[in-house]
Amino acid sequence: MEKLMEQFLEQSAQAEENFYRVEEQRLQAEDRRREAEHARELHMLQMLAQVFSSGRPSSSSSSPPKPSPLARPPHRSSGFRCQVWRLLERYYSLGSSSLGGMDDDVVSLVKSIVPPLTSKKHKGQDGRIGIIGGCKDYTGAPYFAAISALKVGGDLSHVFCTKDAATVIKSYSPELIVHPVLDSPNAVEEIEKWLPRLHGLVVGPGLGREDFLLKTAKALIERSRARDIPIVIDADGLWLVTHQPAVIQGYQKGILTPNFMEFTRLFEALHHEPMNSSDHQRSVMQLSAAMGNLTLVLKGEQDLISDGIYSCSVEGSGRRCGGQGDLLSGSMGVMAHWAHAASTAGLIRGMNPSVVAAFGACSLTRQCNNQAFQRHGRSTTTSDMIQEIGPAFRKLFES
Ligand SMILES: NC(=O)C1=CN([C@@H]2O[C@H](COP(=O)(O)OP(=O)(O)OC[C@H]3O[C@@H](n4cnc5c(N)ncnc54)[C@H](O)[C@@H]3O)[C@@H](O)[C@H]2O)[C@@H](O)CC1
Ligand SMILES: Nc1ncnc2c1ncn2[C@@H]1O[C@H](COP(=O)(O)OP(=O)(O)OP(=O)(O)O)[C@@H](O)[C@H]1O
């Protein structure tokens, strides 16, 4: 019996070793294929850039000029030029890892949207954010999003959730304002009363997928849109968008933050065909276009942000714990308000404010993950990351 057991263990160890060997070979081949594809694409775009970038300094293939994220397409009126510009943008962003400074340029734009802390302001000016989400099953997600909005620097954070989620969420934190209205018969009217006081809305964390909750969320998105409020849609809010894309399509103050699964569902719903999962940048551009060029953030090893393609690769860690996406969407809700306010005030020009907000929130989330991981390693949770928001924010945007 013992001998049999030994044999069995040996065989399974061998099988495991074989599996890892084959897997490693597969990953190496995939890396080589991607590198070759990337090089081909860069080369092609480089040639296009040289042909079309009249007025720009000519670029050597090894060191292309550093792009300014502030720059605008030269003549937006011309469709052809616009297309060329997009190719150039793509070329520059594809080359961004070798350029190095790209992230720094966008980070400095994020710095410029952060409102200064002065004694002249009243409570509420730096952001009153609403979270639509929180139901019987999910109380953590809306809490993470709402507390992150506060810790980033928003002044007031409202959670609109179902009745049975409200007491639970209140008990997590006295800092949140929690409205137990999401499943009341007149939920839309109850919540709409608050819209004039809100600077940003985050729809989806812990919302659930019950029809009546999604119906309420839909009506609130429509009414917030009519009031020109920046809207971040995440988690179950994206389930709604997958089934009814028109609810947010074309809204320039809308930001979608899908993880890979959510992205795939959305892509396949809009394109009626399977996604080519080997080229994420292309898929992001395609989906963004299908959604009316709104800002899209595909979260992952790098966060890919359209319009154009920006990639945020601030170093995080290998730890993925539930709720990181809620930290992201909550902080993005505040930053979207700041970015649009800064844009209206003429403080940022030439770059889509939603992209600046998205980049800011992605960098921050990843930096929080990195710092929390240094302290807690494998046991890092989203609560640990939330503890890092203050120091991470200072390090990225206030130094
Ligand atoms: N503590 C809480 O209350 C939390 C609640 N959450 C809520 O839970 C609800 C459902 O969210 P789910 O994300 O589970 O939704 P989905 O049902 O869309 O996710 C399906 C599955 O996809 C997997 N997945 C994610 N990224 C992937 C990738 N790159 N490749 C392969 N698989 C991947 C996830 O592990 C998940 O099990 C939402 O309302 C969400 O807000 C989450 O935010 C996590 C924390
Ligand atoms: N592979 C990765 N490497 C580094 N960072 C990552 C990786 N995947 C995700 N992240 C970071 O975590 C953030 C949230 O992405 P994630 O995929 O965890 O979202 P989510 O599944 O929607 O989260 P939630 O658990 O809140 O629903 C991303 O914006 C990114 O900063």
TrEMBL record:
GO terms for biological process: metabolite repair; nicotinamide nucleotide metabolic process. Keywords: ATP-binding, Coiled coil, Lyase, NAD, NADP, Nucleotide-binding, Phosphoprotein. Residues 106-396 form the YjeF C-terminal domain. (6S)-NADPHX binds at G206, N259, F260, M261, E262, F263, T264, R265, D326. Gene3D superfamilies: 3.40.1190.20. GO terms for molecular function: ATP binding; ATP-dependent NAD(P)H-hydrate dehydratase activity. It catalyses: (6S)-NADHX + ATP = ADP + phosphate + NADH + H(+); (6S)-NADPHX + ATP = ADP + phosphate + NADPH + H(+). Residues 53-63 have a biased composition (Low complexity). Residues 53-77 are annotated as: Disordered. Catalyzes the dehydration of the S-form of NAD(P)HX at the expense of ATP, which is converted to ADP. Together with NAD(P)HX epimerase, which catalyzes the epimerization of the S- and R-forms, the enzyme allows the repair of both epimers of NAD(P)HX, a damaged form of NAD(P)H that is a result of enzymatic or heat-dependent hydration. Belongs to the NnrD/CARKD family. This is ATP-dependent (S)-NAD(P)H-hydrate dehydratase.
